[in-house]
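Q: What does the assembly look like in three dimensions?
Context provided by user:
Components: two
Sequences:
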Amino acid sequence: MNNHTNVNNDNKDNKIENLTSKLNKINILKKFSLLSKLSFKNARTNLVSSIKNLKRENRILEKTWEIVTLSRNENRPKTIEYINGIFEDFVELSGDRLCEDDKAIVGGFAKLGERSVAVIGHNKGKNIKERVEFNFGMPNPSGYRKAMRIMEIAQRFNFPLITFIDTPGANPAIEAEDHGQASAISHSIEFMLNLKIPVICIFIGEGGSGGALALAIGNHLVILENSTYSVISPEGCAAILWKDQKEVKKAAAMLKLTAIDLYKLGAVDKILREPKGGAQNSHEKMIHILKNYLKNILTEYDKYSGEELKELRMKKFESFGFFS
Amino acid sequence: MSIFVCNSCKKEIDEEQFLENLNVCPNCGKHYYLDSWSRIKTLTDENSFNEIGKEINSVDFLNFTDLKSYKLRLEEARQKSKVSEAIIVGSAKISGFDVGIGVMDFSFMGGSMGSVVGERIKRLADYVISKEIPLIIVCASGGARMQEGIISLMQMVKTVSAVKRVKEKGLLYLSIITDPTTGGVSASFATVADIIISEPGALFCFAGPRVVEQTIKKKLPEDFGLAERNLRNGQVDMILNRKDLKPTLAKLLGIFTKEDKSLIDK
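A: Here is the predicted structure of the complete assembly.
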């Protein structure tokens, strides 16, 4: 959640420096024939490959961190822009009918061409004022309960459901806990598993843990190239496992949270390429790409019955796991 | 005779008496950690437990290394704790009633949920469905197992889906919350049970107290996330002392198993 952590690169850079200076030393020794040919060759091969490995690791760390940063870029298109850009006639609903309206989740109904659809997403806000008002897209239990209300209506009218995922995580607050944050998330998961309509989930930025998962139980999971999805934030992971906030880059790389890593693990079904440099550079292009993809993929799900859609979804999620 | 000091009431406790009291302080009633095998012994009829899925084990499929490798952490956990993973599941009898039971163990990597916890719960669900018997899971977990990355997050859905199938078959699902139950476990199978029972003083929340305190930068109420507050807030059905768990389970099983099933079959 803290984007401005000092990042620790020193260790690795030092190691590379040390190895490089060793390599220089043995090169000098060789010049003066103080090393036998064979031991020089072995020593050099080892050093060169160690340096290469460290540099490769460094590149992965940097590349992953670049994606984490991009996924959080404040200028990326937000849920509400996608909704307004992709659909027509969007009508927003409010409130959980229990206690409040959570602005961190936005949802309602709209048209996509001829189709009526339900849309729900995390609401991050496009400027400081909105971000504060929407609590940075970190939902309270009431947000998930509002989402379930919308899903229930979608189910009754047989509308496909499209969700947009973009959150640092569920709101960690006393009131959120008192109102059953854990229960709201688990029930949203259960509710989505039960839906007899096509459910398409799109990761458009930050996919933060349980708070993201609660809206991400789809038949088809799409991720934009520079989005992430993770069991814990790199900051949280570094603090717990490394006991050092500065190790965020290592934590991010270890967590395998980039689109490509997630795809390889089977956690997402499709990666959509973003405009050059990232979605923030051309909202219009990104929205266009996503709109076309959505139209096509919804057509593909027309062939399934409601029961099939539910069964396929449950089977998909029950198949996750690696063990011996 | 060995003696230790209860960290709640600060009284000296005779260890033998403590063990006899199921790891509950005989003076103040504080409920301490109980390993899975002892828990199974206290809840189920003698020699009735048959383990399911003990042959499946965790693997380090991401080559995850923090200060230690996941591989090493697993080896250490297997040596240090009495269990093969963070959950033991199997069939058992409780006061004569057949049940499927899973018991988590906090001593195995903080009871964290990875692929094996998910798969064992799934197999337990399949078993209770095939036998048409109730499902009971005793929870204790710090959350999802970070060393399995996104796949550990997926176990939340996997377990909810598995217990959902149990519920859809008209079978009872009970969860018992023990200290602590947080994160990915609290936000998945623990909270979708038909009935949720908590031990006294058990921490049961999604975001842990440290995370919430750091975020809101305020001191938390003393009972944040604790059983008594959860009961007041409507998050659990009841708080039961450890010694009262088995008799209450027997009562519930008596109410729900036979009569309910005959109704559903009609």
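Follow-up: The first strand of chain A starts at residue 88 and ends at 93.
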